[in-house]
């Protein structure tokens, strides 16, 4: 049994915290949304405070690099509430260079740092079945082992220092973001041809054009349910990281840049807080098409 602090109890972080509780660990969690903290407490966890006991491991599931650095090493950074030799698992999508810098700060404090971005969505987070793209020292992997066992179905060992984990997550986000944008165009195109979108999903699921993102997001459009499991606003950040990394490497990414422009346009159109399947709304609006749920 380990004492684990979880920073960020959104749709992913709360599921991860609950998976840790099921595995028998003591879990203290923190989130700006008190409702999420209350959900953790109802499940047997505790709110994290400066009076909480020092942790064996800290799981940081915040939005971006700035939040990661502030949560870990800011004025009230929670890395200070780790036991000597404790382990940080940093799960946000960030640039590899940033992950390397955070590893250096952790090591300077006598802590281990696992570059551990995640994939799988809120459902798999709640099931303890995430995919973790991890890189770090052998000691970091050792310190994170019981936490990873509770949260993940698959742990990919990608290197012995921070950086490769975040680089691999960028590859994943490139594909995921482009696939969702393509899904939106496909459903908009199908609508323009008078096709029943439920039938489109049925056919494409067993055809060569399918993707995990198509199968996962198309039902949101068909059901007119844009409750944000993963919001539009995530993609300008994540694809922006991808294109910045690529620019540093001198590599043009025209498909990614086009998808990025679509997400930015969707956010500017007021769709930023909606599920990322709402990219279909942007496509449909340009031709005056009606999607399921439209009056």
Which structural category do the helix and sheet elements fall into? alpha/beta
Oligomerization state of this entry? Answer: single chain
The fourth-level CATH homologous superfamily of the largest domain is: NAD(P)-binding Rossmann-like Domain
Examine the coordinates and then state which fold CATH places here, giving the name of the CATH topology of the largest domain: Rossmann fold
Principal-axes geometry comes out as globular
Largest sheet: 6 strands, parallel
- Write down how many β-strands occur, each being a DSSP E stretch of 2 or more residues: 9
In whole angstroms, how far apart are the ends?
A: 54 Å
Which CATH-level-2 architecture of the largest domain? Answer: 3-Layer(aba) Sandwich
Number of domains: 2
Rg, rounded, reads: 20 Å
Q: Helix count?
A: 12
Which percent range describes the beta-strand content? Answer: 5-15%
Structural description of this entry:
This protein is an alpha/beta fold and 295 residues long. The protein has two domains: 3-161, NAD(P)-binding Rossmann-like Domain (Rossmann fold, 3-Layer(aba) Sandwich); 166-285, N-(1-d-carboxylethyl)-l-norvaline Dehydrogenase, domain 2. It has helices at residues 11-22, 34-42, 65-73, 96-108, 121-127, 138-151, 164-192, 197-204, 212-222, 234-248, 254-271, 279-285; strands at residues 3-7, 26-30, 46-47, 55-60, 82-90, 112-115, 118-119, 130-134, 152-157. A six-stranded parallel sheet has the order 3-2-1-4-5-6, sandwiched between helices. Strands 7-8-9 form a three-stranded mixed sheet. Helix 7 (164-192) packs across helix 10 and helix 7 packs across helix 11. The termini are far apart.
């Amino acid at each position: 049994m380990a004492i684990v602090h979880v920073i960020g109890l959104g749709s992913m972080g709360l599921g991860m915290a609950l998976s840790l509780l099921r595995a028998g660990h003591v879990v203290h969690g923190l989130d700006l949304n008190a409702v999420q903290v209350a959900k953790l407490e109802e499940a047997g966890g505790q709110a994290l405070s400066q009076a909480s006991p020092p942790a064996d491991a800290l799981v940081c599931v915040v939005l971006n690099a700035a939040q990661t650095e502030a949560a870990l090493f800011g004025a009230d950074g929670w890395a200070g509430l780790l036991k000597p030799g404790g382990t940080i698992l940093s799960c946000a999508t960030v640039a590899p260079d940033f992950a390397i810098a955070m590893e250096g700060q952790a090591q300077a404090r006598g802590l281990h740092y696992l570059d551990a971005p995640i994939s799988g969505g809120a459902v798999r987070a709640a099931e303890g079945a995430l995919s973790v793209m991890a890189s770090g020292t052998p000691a970091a992997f050792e310190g994170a082992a019981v936490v990873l066992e509770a949260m993940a179905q698959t742990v990919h060992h990608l290197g012995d220092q921070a950086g490769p984990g975040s680089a691999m997550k960028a590859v994943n986000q490139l594909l995921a973001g482009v696939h969702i944008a393509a899904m939106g165009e496909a459903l908009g195109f199908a609508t323009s041809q008078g096709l029943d979108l439920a039938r489109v999903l049925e056919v494409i699921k067993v055809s060569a054009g399918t993707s995990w993102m198509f199968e996962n997001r198309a039902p949101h459009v068909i059901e007119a349910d844009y409750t944000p499991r993963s919001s539009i606003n995530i993609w300008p950040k994540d694809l922006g990281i991808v294109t910045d990394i690529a620019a540093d490497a001198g590599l043009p990414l025209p498909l990614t840049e086009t998808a990025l422009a679509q997400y930015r346009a969707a956010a500017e159109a007021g769709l930023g807080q909606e599920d990322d399947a709402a990219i279909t709304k942007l496509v449909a609006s340009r031709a005056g098409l009606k999607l399921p749920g439209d009056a």
